[in-house]
Amino acid sequence: MSASRRSGATDELGPDEPGASGEPGGSDLLAALLDGMDAALCAFDAAGVVTHWNREAERILGWSAKDAVGRHGFAGWAVRTADAEEVQARLLSAMRAPGRQVHEFALLTKDGGRVLVRTQSAAVRGADGEPAGVYCAFSEVHAQIDLERSIALSEALFEDAEWGVVLVDADLRPAVVNAHASRAFGIGRASALGRPLGELLAQGVEELEAALTHVLAEGAPPAPAEVWVTLRSPAEGEQRRCWRNAFLPLASPLAEEPVPLGVGWLFTDVTEAKRGEQEAALLRFRTKQLHRAARAAAECEDPLEAATVHLDYALAGFADHALIDRLADAPRTPDAAGAVRLVRLAATPAGAPGPSVLTGAAGLPVRYEPGHPALSCVERTGCVRAEAGSVPPELAREWALRRQWPGDAVHALCAVLRSRGRTLGVVTFLRGAARTPFERSDTSYAEDVALRIAAALDLAGATRER
Question: Which of 365, 387, 361 is nearest to 375 (CA)?
Fold first, then answer.
């Protein structure tokens, strides 16, 4: 038995013998409770005699309950003789002090080693309210420090961390959310608890839930995962963000077999860095395309073929369709007036992918209605963007066909073709519904392509005149 009673110290715990029903007696129950504790525990009576000693105390110091119970204090066995009086006084002072007393001192192990322990001691009072002894719980200082560090780390993560930290339960619902994560979700910390992720995020939920399910079943992934999500913000609307996520499986340390408690989910917003990487990669690709197009066009004997080469190289990763329209009349100068008429010079195949095809041999103007983006592009001598907007597919197709474009076009970008101070025509790039609308960076690229096509068309005109 790891705990023993001395006279007068534990009389109120109950009889030693089991009851008639076979239930354990008071001392047996006390011994089981003491032996099951994770902390080392010993107790002294009012005279300073050891009355209890559990298995954890035996594990730390090596002294068994048989060795310890009945000794007067720690002098001569668990503490150096020079320190015994001070240690005894500090421990027994808890009988006269309110609350718990915390001390640190070195104890001796049975094999002669020394262990620095941190103790918490408090008075044990009898039925009359007078101090009847002292109980002392102790643990190795390094273990206590590890525990305190773990608690401090948890508090720091949930208060001051620059990463979002969310504890997700086994049902994939947030159980704890730190301040950073609540700001990212655009919702209060308490409001996010217990809600499905689908109520917090508009897009990206499937990827996150699949990752959390994988972690619960298989463990943590070897590296952080980047996921694009769309946040629901009442004030700013939907916002698309890129989060770098790390996942940690949480299991109970108290169970004999690992019991999943959920997942620790840490994330940080890397949207700006990710967009910078994408823009840099896109710029490198487009620069290479322009370089390849220039080299290929230099090998073309016909300047019009060179113009279509530039168009074909520009399409890769940029648009689904492209058109070149030249002015039906002479090149237009800035002070020219009158209606603009355009003739289709080249176009990409509308049905299947392939190289651009030269058309318009008959020289018939394209039936562009007034206000058409291509006509506006010539009049303004600048780029014009247009899109069908959020309409049903039938209306979007009608919008495209009415402008003499392929039926699947929903986004358009027209760039003017200018050379030697004159307007020669328009190049139009078209995107389908699967692509995003044209942006400002796309406009710059379209203008670069238009400059090269315009130079080729100008050369073709000059050659024809000679």
Answer: 365
Q: Residues 32, 35, 39, 43: is their CA dihedral positive or negative?
A: positive
Using DSSP's 3-state secondary structure scheme, residue 31 falls into helix
What is the per-residue pLDDT for 336? 63
Judge contact between 24 and 52, C-beta under 8 A: no
pTM of the model: 0.61
- Answer yes or no: are the C-beta atoms of 340 and 325 closer than 8 Å: no
| Cα distances (Å, whole numbers) of residue 325 to 25, 406, 423, 455 | 101, 15, 11, 14
Q: What confidence tier does 9 reach under pLDDT thresholds 50, 70, 90?
A: very low
| Phi and psi, residue 145, nearest 5° | -65, -40
Give CA–CA dist 316/426, Å, rounded.
19
Give the tens place of pLDDT for each residue, 39-61. 788 888 888 888 888 888 888 88
Query: For residues 313 and 206, what is the distance between their CA atoms, to the nearest angstrom?
Result: 36
What's the rounded Cα separation, in Å, for the pair 465 and 453? Answer: 19
Q: How far apart are the first and last CA of the chain?
A: 115
Q: Which residue has the higher pLDDT, 417 or 83?
A: 417
What H or E segment, with its residue span, contains residue 416? strand 411-419
Neighbours of 286 (CB within 10 A): 21
CA distance 277 to 226: 13
Cα–Cα distance between 107 and 23 in angstroms, integer? 38
Q: What is the pLDDT of residues 206-227, one digit of tens each?
A: 999 999 999 988 888 889 999 9
- The model's pLDDT over 154-192, given as tens digits with 9 standing for 90+, comes to 777 777 778 888 988 888 898 888 888 888 888 887 888
Mean pLDDT over the full length of the chain: 83
227-249 pLDDT, tens digit each? 999 887 666 667 889 999 999 88
Question: Residue by residue, what is the 3-state secondary structure of 105-140?
Answer: EEEECCCCCEEEEEEEEEEEECCCCCEEEEEEEEEE
Residue from 143, 108, 136 nearest 120 by CA = 136
SS3 461: helix
User: Taking the CB of residue 408, how many other CB atoms lie within 10 A of it?
Assistant: 17
- DSSP of 287-351: HHHHHHHHHHHHT-SSHHHHHHHHHHHHHTTT-SEEEEEEESSSPBPTT--S---EEEEEE--SS
**How many CB atoms are located within 10 Å of the residue 389 CB?**
10
